[in-house]
Amino acid sequence: MRIREFESELILPLSREQVFLFFADATNLEAITPPWLHFHILTPMPIEMRAGVQIDYRLKIHGWPVRWRSRISVWDPPHRFVDEQILGPYRLWQHTHEFLEVSGGTRVRDHVRYAVPMDWLLHRLFVRRDLEEIFRYRAMAIRRHCLQSHASHATAGPCCT
Question: pTM (2 decimals)?
Answer without folding.
Answer: 0.90
